[in-house]
Structure formats: structure tokens, C-alpha cells
Amino acid sequence: MARGILYGIAVSSGISIGKAFFMDRSRQSAAHDIIQPGAAESEVARLDEAAAQVAADLDRARAQVPADLRDHAAIIDSHRMICRDPKLMGDAARRIREQNISAPWALEQAVDAIAQAFRAIDDPYIRERVQDVRAVAERILSRLAGNARELKSTGERMVLLAHDLTPADTIELQVSRIMSFATAEGGKTSHTGILARSLQIPAVVGVSGLEEATADGDLVIIDALRGRILIDPDEHELAEYTELKYQFESYQRSIRRQSTLPAETLDGYRIEVQSNIELLEEVPQVLDSGADGVGLYRTEYAFLARRQPPSEQDLCDEYSQVAALMSPRQVVFRTLDVGADKMLREQVRMEEPNPALGLRAIRFCLRHQDVFRTQLRAILRASVHGNVALLFPMISGIQELRQARHILQEVRQELDAEGIPHAPDMPVGIMVELPSAVLIADALAHEVDFFSIGTNDLIQYSLGIDRGNRHVSYLYQPLHPAIVRSIKLVVDSAHRAGISVSVCGEVASDPFCLPILMGMQIDSISIAPQAVPGIKHIIRKTNMEECKTLTRDVLNATTVSTINRMVKETIYNRFPEELTFFSSMLDTDD
């Protein structure tokens, strides 16, 4: 039996067996020193010099990124910007001057202030960007402490363990030598996860006790199917996992060979399988996955990763490249889904007691129309490629939607007057993610060309829980009767009005939930690129009539426990082998 088993979050599937190698053991400890009166400016200069040195380190790492690791380059670029971020560095400098404290202490306080603001954000992708701020701060703290952060190296392939990990770290350690990795920090949407998926290596993050329980040279098994790490496994466990590793890799090769085949059930029902992305650099991964298009392009990154708001031309160039690379496959651009608590540094920040229910998404855009119009112009200009659609987030009612469409029409007229080409019939849809939108879906369906059901937010808003809060996360149940019936109501409303409906979010890539969505006869799903081959494989082995029967039974049930038990039994019986390689949100006991 293994000496120890640790648990975390699997962010890049696979099995890895090898010797552990620690990059570092813990966060840099900030010196909490009071400085002498009159020494503030020299301390600010010391902070600026440390940040400049880290920026230079990142510049060198960026220059070494291979052409095929575009995700690495994009993340390093964002870290370079954080080094020069006036919000972070300016706040730290202000604290030095006002409190007469040392640069490390001031930087630590500035990072904590940013982290507190990020905790109020309901979007997990945006919320976990605080890890990038912490990673950069760690490098600056090392420089302030007089350390050049020289990473020890090894000539062998390794299972890399770290408190946290950045693309710059992997470049310095040589990517080719990393078999897999595990970190104490991070979540599903952290850049650590993106990094692992771009490298296509197994990874588990958010591992409690990682630094205390393991040492360099320990033989470890990274089980990135179940989110486990086995330390010093015995012979039986080694044999078991060696066989599981072989089976998984064989399965992956099999489904990838078939990934370009259509997602069509055994009895002829076809569903479009698209991808969710947020970076231009992810487009090759979408194409390689066999996805039918981009069902959700999150446009926030271009705004949040810059010190200055992107220009219309910046956005047009980005959107046009995505559309051109994906052509003729459709690309759905979601307009800015941010709030006053997480918007551009140059915008006036509003103090909101509950940002998740405040000025965010379409509400923010309608308030800040200069930003909104710039983005709409860029999307319309990119629509000349003929495969672009527009998606408004967090629509709560008809009036809000009509106001957004009115601004869109004004922007169209401006482009016409300027002689700038754009597609006159670009499809316009809305995210259905609020209970209010569900209840008036029949009316909204006559105002748009398509629906996209955002299940992550719909579940949280409908059930009134934050799945990031460990005290109530057990209540995050995707097959709660209220959620299932809400989705059915939206699908039926869309089809009665003659428009298509897509489902995005983790529910769409969950093999236990997907057959229920199919039984409702949704038109498409949009999921992470890495999930596409496996989900298409599941769909091709499914019978639509069976899905309809299961869906009817689920809709008639009244408790979560009954539904989860019913679905688990049905799906396990139908796909006993495939489910070995899938995780599910239903894995949590009711």
C-alpha cells in the first residue's frame, strides 16, 4: 500500500509514474520591516528595480518559447504586463510611502488587496487569475530577498512538484523533461491547468499537503483521472496503474483518430460539438480536437491582460484572425462579460457590496457604451469572414436586450456611413443564465437568432450557492429538478420559435448529464477543446430514444438523490468502459 495518498483537482487527464522533483517548497516569506523616515523613495526604487529584473527574466523566457507552445507565450506575456502593472506596483509604492514599511511587506499587502477583490468574482476563470498575480509577486519577492530564482536542474525526466507553476518556470526547466506535474495552488481554470493541457501532460492542482508529504526522489503516481497522488506505491499499485496508463493512452489514440467524424447517435440524431476558448492561440487546439466550431469565444482576456484598453483595430485584428483560421466553421463572440470590480484599470471602479449581482456583463456594457461600441465595431468588421455570430451575456429581460440591439444597429449604420464592410445578417444570440431569462424564454426567443444556455451561472443563480464556497459547494447539483426543468423550458421555447439552442458549461461535457441534454434535443454543445474527442465518442455510441426515455424519467423525479442515482445506474450500465476515463460533477455524494 502507498505510503500516502494526496487529493487535488485533475486539470489535464492521464496517468504518470516517476520520481518527484521539487521546483520550490513554499511561497517566499515577505519581511515585515518598518523603514526609517525618509527612506521611502529608496525603498520604492528597490521595488521598481526588482520588478524590472523580473520583467527582464520573463522577456528572456518569452524569447525561448517554441513556436508550437503558443499558450505558454500568451501567459508569459500576461505575467510581463503584471510586472509593469500600475495598479499593483503603484499600490505597493503608495503603501511604502504612507506606512513606512518595507517593499516586500508593501507588495504582499497589495497582492492581498487584489486577491480580496477577486474573491467576489463569480466567474472562476477570472477569479483564478489572482494566481498569476501571486506568481509574479513571488518572483519579485525573490529578487528583493537577493535571490535570482535559479532553478535547480536535472538531466532526467521528472514528475514536477511545485507550490505553483508558470510557463516561464517550465521553459527554464526544459519542457521536454516534464512527464507530469502537481501543484499546491491552482484550480480547473487557472493558468496552471491551461499550461498542462497545452503540454498534453497529466496534472493535478490544488493538492493539500503536497509540500509536507513528498520529497525529492520519491516515487509517485500522478492519477490525473481521479485527482490523486500516490506516494511510494507498492508493487500491486504500480502494476495496476501501469495497466491503467496503457489503457488510457490507447483509448486516447482511438478517440483522437475518430475525432473528425460527426457527433451522430446510433439512430441518426446529430449534434454540433463546439469549443469554448478565450485566446487566439487556442484555435489550433480547437481544430485538432475535431470541434465543429467555437461556440463561445470569451473576449475578456484582451481587456484584462492589458494596461490600456485595446483599440478597435487591436480587437478587429484578433477577432478576424480567429474567424479566418476557423472558417468556414462558426465562431460565436460573447461581448465583454466583466463587472465594475474586474474591469479595466482606467475605468472608475465602483464599490459594490455584491458584485455578482451588480454592474456586470451586459449591464456594464450598457453603462460604458464607449467600450461596448468599440467591441461591437470590431466584431462587425470581423464578420466579413461570413462565419461570425454575436452573443450578449447575462440578459435579464426584453428591454435590456432591445437596448443592446439598438446600439448594435447604430454601430451598423456608422460602419455603413464610413463605407466599412461587415456582414448585414450576422446572427445575434443571448446567454440564458438568469432565472428571469428562463421564465420569459418564450418572449426572448422571438427577439434573437439563437440561445446559448450558460449552465455554470444558471445553476449558481437558480440555487443561490457559490460552488467555490466549501461550506455550500455540495449544493451545486447540475441535475437538481429546478435546473433540469429550466433547461427543458428554454429548449422548448427556442424550438417553438424556430431558433437553435446550445448548452455551454461543464454540464455539457459531463457524460452523466449529456444524455439528458440530448433527450431534450438540444442543437449543439460548447465545451473545452480537450473534451471534444471523448464527448463525440460518447455521442456516437448513444441511442437517442434511450436519451429521451431517461430525460422523461428525470423530469418526473422530484429529488436530487433520486435523479443522480437513476442517471448513474443508467449511464454506468450503458458505458462501463468509457466512464473509467471521465470525471463527473455527480461524483459527489448527495
From TrEMBL:
Cofactor(s) needed for function: Mg(2+)
Gene3D superfamilies recorded: Phosphoenolpyruvate-binding domains, Phosphohistidine domain, PtsI, HPr-binding domain
GO molecular function terms noted in the UniProt entry: kinase activity; metal ion binding; phosphoenolpyruvate-protein phosphotransferase activity
PROSITE patterns linked to this entry: PEP_ENZYMES_2 (PS00742)
Ranges for domain PEP-utilising enzyme C-terminal: 256-543
Cellular component GO terms held in the UniProt record: cytoplasm
Entry annotation: catalytic residues: 191 (tele-phosphohistidine intermediate), 504 (proton donor)
Enzyme class: transferase
Binding annotation for Mg(2+): 433, 457
Record: residues binding phosphoenolpyruvate: 298, 334, 456-457, 467
Chemical reaction(s) catalysed: L-histidyl-[protein] + phosphoenolpyruvate = N(pros)-phospho-L-histidyl-[protein] + pyruvate
Classification via PANTHER family: PHOSPHOENOLPYRUVATE-PROTEIN PHOSPHOTRANSFERASE
Name of the protein this chain belongs to: Phosphoenolpyruvate-protein phosphotransferase
Native species: Nitratidesulfovibrio vulgaris (strain DP4) (Desulfovibrio vulgaris)
